Amino acid sequence: MAPVAAALTKVLITGFGPFYGVTNNPSWAIASRLPATLDNNIQLIVYPAEVPVAYHPVASIIPALIAEHQPDVALHIGVAEGRSYFAVEQSSTRRSYEFVQDIYGEVFTLEEQAKAWGDAEAVLQTDLDLNVIVDGWQNGTLHMKWPFNIGGRSTSAGQPVEVVLKEDIMETEDVRWSDNVGNYLCGFMYYMDLVEMGRSGAYKKRDVAFMHVPLLKTEEEFQFGVEVTVALIQAMVDDWRAKGRV
């Protein structure tokens, strides 16, 4: 007897636009290159534009996307300029966004936070099991090869590029668990979606994650980022389905 096909799983994806010093944000470069579907009945709902690195657009876009699409899982992507690895973040904190200006010179006041988040806890975590997910993510990326010098990775002086491309296979620490989403728009977006998915997602669970990517710059690196992201999405959906929310 043929195996029963998995029920459709909808995954919401976003990527950020330019901000200080980053004119081509790799988070959007990756999101915009993702396919519409993945194997095993996974549908990717990619927000069709760069999300501005600004509080009020995020505070408007995220609740509207969840209300419209009722995603099963969400993944938001941002860039961490100083990192040479990919990381999925565990939690986000309700911070003092009234003091940190966005790209438009605006802040998100305490009054606005109270209206948007009510009495939500100061620290919110994903309901996905990131330890299990990262294990699956690492296994799913072991066959991949890093483009040369991606995100600051380099090899010994004089080593030819073709040797790097042949031998620089990903290691487990190249994709990893983290709990350092930051206190700017990455942390703000993650906290916003953790609140909203807990309120109005398809299962009222915080089945959402935030991934930081290195400062990818070339088309080859962007395509590599797509492969790494697809592997993460598949691991996230596997965990979500294993919890029986299908």
From TrEMBL:
GO terms for molecular function: pyroglutamyl-peptidase activity. One of its GO terms (cellular component) is cytosol. GO terms for biological process: proteolysis. Keywords: Cytoplasm, Hydrolase, Protease, Thiol protease. SUPFAM superfamilies: Pyrrolidone carboxyl peptidase (pyroglutamate aminopeptidase). It comes from the Eukaryota. Coiled coil: none annotated. Belongs to the peptidase C15 family. This is Peptidase C15, pyroglutamyl peptidase I-like protein. It comes from Amniculicola lignicola CBS 123094.
